[in-house]
Write a structure and sequence with these properties.
Blueprint (H helix, E strand, L loop, with lengths): L1 H10 L3 E8 L2 E3 L8 E5 L3 E5 L2 H5 L6 E4 L3 E5 L7 H9 L3 E6 L5 E5 L3 H17 L2
Antiparallel strand pairs: 1-2, 1-3, 1-8, 3-4, 4-5, 6-7, 7-8
């Protein structure tokens, strides 16, 4: 059962393991784990310390309402200086900015295809959230 639930969640759009950076520092997950389980829902972007937390709908480490964030590729012209610096080390990823607080987080992906899937998931989530 657990494997089936994890497989179903892992194959959904807007779900995956991402490195998270905040204020120029990588956030560590459980132990020394470097990636967090993240997912886009119809109204929020969630980051969990480990996949099990997300699958079991435990409290996320971070949660961003889609209506309050801007999302852009790390190397876009609109990205912050920190994002552009990170993009020289990590080729693929995106930046999330909370419009209410102006705080910035950067997320690193494994490939350009993964980056595009995440950016697409944010567009889909935003349009389905009303």
């Amino acid at each position: 059962r657990w494997i089936d639930a994890l497989t179903e969640k892992a194959q959904a759009q807007g779900v995956g393991l991402l490195q998270i950076h905040y204020q120029g520092r990588m956030l560590l997950g459980k132990g020394l784990q470097r990636r967090h389980y993240c997912r886009v829902t119809s109204d929020r972007f969630l980051a969990f310390v480990c996949p099990r937390d997300g699958v079991e709908s435990r409290r996320p480490r971070e949660a961003w309402p889609l209506a309050q964030i801007s999302v852009r590729a790390l190397c876009s012209d609109e990205a912050s200086e920190l994002a552009r610096q990170l993009s020289t080390l990590a080729n693929f990823g995106f930046e999330v900015q909370c419009r209410r607080t102006a705080r910035l987080w950067q997320f690193v992906c494994e490939s350009h295809a993964e980056e595009l899937e995440w950016l697409r998931a944010f567009r889909v989530g935003r349009t389905t959230s009303g």
